[in-house]
Write a structure and sequence with these properties.
The protein is an alpha/beta fold and 298 residues long. The protein is built from 12 helices and 8 strands. It has a single domain, classed as Alpha-Beta Barrel (TIM Barrel), CATH 3.20.20.
Length: 298
């Protein structure tokens, strides 16, 4: 199959990237990161998360972050909302798009959001209803689609089932998350192919953590399957606090470099994005995880 001519990048660095950081990061630093990302040509930035501050302390300042960002009209600034409490807080903070997050693994669902998969879907129903009433779009995540830190292999059928339910409940786009980065290209392609039998490809996104260094290969395999939306994180920041050992998302810079080489348009200025990645890495006091940025620096 021919590759798509355009890819939409969902920049999850300010949320997925920072949520696992142990050191305190100020609201001002988060706002600066989001505003710098806004200058790179990105059209979608996941800027925070309205979850329990006891569970994910780093995201506690998300309301302030949203209140302070100088938002650009052409950019969607989204937030995670696991329940009505989160959704209401997000609406108060002026968030324009939200995401709910489920898992294909029962154990991960329990560890991450303290309920079963079935109960999580019940919790999302009022969120989707309220969002619909207020004209707010809802993205849906499925975690552990290619493996679980507690259960190991996850059956593709379990992924299809949860993804389909989220889509039928009204999520406009389903992001399939390889939370611990164990997937390989063939399995990733097969999974997306299977899910695309119940959800159109234009409504599916790939969310690859890069723990085993397979994310770019997985994205390439998904491109060949006709998937054209990918989540990534500037400087490869991140990890999930409830998936021990899982490293960050694939670095946005590395994805853009690969897509540029394939002649696929993203609208993102790679040089500017590299600068943003180096900036946030300096704020965090460590080297960037982007191979492209490291090579560029050398
Ligand atoms: P719970 O303890 O079952 O919730 O947590 P509860 O309804 O029983 O409430 C207990 C307490 O939490 C109460 O406070 C509530 O007010 C508070 P208390 O009375 O004890 O002081 N609470 C909240 N506070 C703020 N915002 C809220 C909220 N809801 C309840 N929305 C809950 C359930 C879902 C809240 C909890 O488990 C939680 O916050 N989990 C965080 C999960 C998380 O953020 N994980 C990381 C993001 S997911 C991810 O990274 C994967 C992804 O990237 C894709 C991939 O890679 O696969 C998306
Ligand atoms: Mg993630």
């Amino acid at each position: 199959m021919s590759l798509p001519s355009h890819v939409r990048i969902v920049e999850v660095g300010p949320r997925d990237g920072l949520q696992n950081e142990k050191q305190p990061i100020s609201v001002a630093d988060k706002v600066t990161l989001i505003e710098k990302l806004s200058q790179t040509g990105l059209s979608y930035i996941e800027a925070g998360s309205f979850v329990s501050p006891k569970w994910v302390p780093q995201m506690a300042g998300s309301a302030e972050v949203f209140q302070h960002i100088q938002s650009a009209d052409h950019i969607t600034y989204a937030a995670l909302t696991p329940n009505m409490q989160g959704f209401e807080a997000a609406m108060q903070a002026g968030v324009s798009e939200v995401a709910v997050f489920a898992a294909a693994s029962e154990s991960f669902s329990q560890k991450n959001i303290n309920c079963s998969i079935a109960d999580s879907l019940i919790r999302f129903q009022p969120v989707l209803a309220a969002a619909k009433q207020q004209g707010v779009k809802v993205r849906g995540y499925v975690s552990c689609v290619l493996g679980c830190p507690y259960e190991g292999n996850i059956a593709a059928e379990a992924v299809v089932d949860v993804a389909q339910q989220l889509y039928e409940m009204g999520c406009y786009e389903i992001s399939l998350g390889d939370t611990i980065g164990v997937g390989t290209a063939k399995k990733a392609a097969q999974l997306f192919n299977k899910v695309s039998q119940v959800i159109p490809k234009a409504h599916l996104a790939g969310h690859f953590h890069d723990t085993y260094g397979q994310a770019l290969a997985n994205i390439y395999a998904c491109l060949q399957e006709g998937i054209h939306i990918f989540d990534s994180s500037v400087a490869g920041l991140g990890g999930c606090p409830y998936a021990k050992g899982a490293s960050g998302n694939v670095a946005s810079e590395d994805v853009i470099y690969m897509l540029n080489g394939l002649g696929i348009n993203t609208g993102v200025d790679l040089d500017k994005l590299i600068q943003v990645g180096l900036h946030i890495s300096a704020v965090l006091g460590r080297e960037t995880n982007s191979r492209v940025a490291r090579a560029w620096q050398a």
